[in-house]
Amino acid sequence: MMLYSCRCLEAMIKYLTLWKKEGQEEPYVSLTRKKMLIDGQEVLIEWEVGHSIRTLAMHRNAYKRMSQIQAFLGSVPQLTYQLYVTLISAEVPLGRAVLMVFSLMSVTYGATLCNMLAIQIKYDDYKIRLGPVEVLCITIWRTLEITSRLMILVLFSATLKLKAVPFLVLNFLVILFEPWVKFWRSGAQMPNNIEKNFSRVGTLVVLISVTILYAGINFSCWSALQLRLADRDLVDKGQNWGHMGLHYSVRLVENVIMVLVFKFFGVKVLLNYCHSLIALQLIIAYLISIGFMLLFFQYLHPLRSLFTHNVIDYLHCVCCHWHHRRRAENSEPSFDAETRQSVV
């Protein structure tokens, strides 16, 4: 908290300094080069960036990451708890409703930033601009994904009470230790020089903190990045369709199981509402969020022309593999029958 306050104070001083020196040239500048896609063509652009502007950009990036920490390690538990209390008490006071709305806005903003930061990290050489349509698509996708996921978790917890704790804890621990298991299986060494002044203990603390944040994000929604502890950048910069497909497939199966538990064993906590209708609406909302996600990556991603394969190619590959496998299984009995016939 002290570090965050010092950063805010330094940013305010920088802003006041720039405001006083408006119109004056800064003596310390550096050239920044980025690629930009214009009508499908790569164009190299460069511009001068002053020392003060670069410092403010550093603070801005730090605030973005701080908002993610606050959203997923602060607002998600708060929103989940308020939903659970509302479900049990069957009443929604105005203060609690306002708190839940602001918590949902915070989580949605954090999840939207996840997408934007993931694009910036993966395509660091490019200058990226997201239009209103792209941001709207991401916001709808993330809002539906988070609300449906948290509602399912709350209904599942309200149904099983303490019996739901082992399942939820195991779910979180699997996400938490998955990057470490991959790191140990790869046989790689711990990355050095994540920061110049960090010792090995400091590096380990940073890796643990990043892993906890990564698990917190993936517990409620997709993080848009795959953590890779063996790499100095800590993330996989490739467009990993398999990781995204696996995440949403596993989450969909989990959500269906938890919704079925609520449908068949849930108590009548919601008066005048049909459990089957609630379960169906939540699964449909999650499927719609997946639809908006596919829409974004197929048609609205700012650098989709750089993809080696897009969403349709990946789905076509999966469907073709499944179709060929079924044809092979169907052809084996006929081949065995022909073999027996020839022997006779």
UniProtKB/TrEMBL annotation:
Superkingdom assignment: Eukaryota
Keyword Transmembrane helix applies: yes
Principal place of residence: membrane
Presence of keyword Endoplasmic reticulum: no
Name of a matching Pfam family: XK-related
Lipid bilayer topology: Multi-pass membrane protein
InterPro entries assigned: XK-rel, XK-related_adapter
Keywords, comma-separated and alphabetical: Membrane, Transmembrane, Transmembrane helix
Gene Ontology CC: plasma membrane
Subcellular location: Membrane
Family statement drawn from the similarity comment of this UniProt entry: Belongs to the XK family.
Protein name, UniProt field: XK-related protein
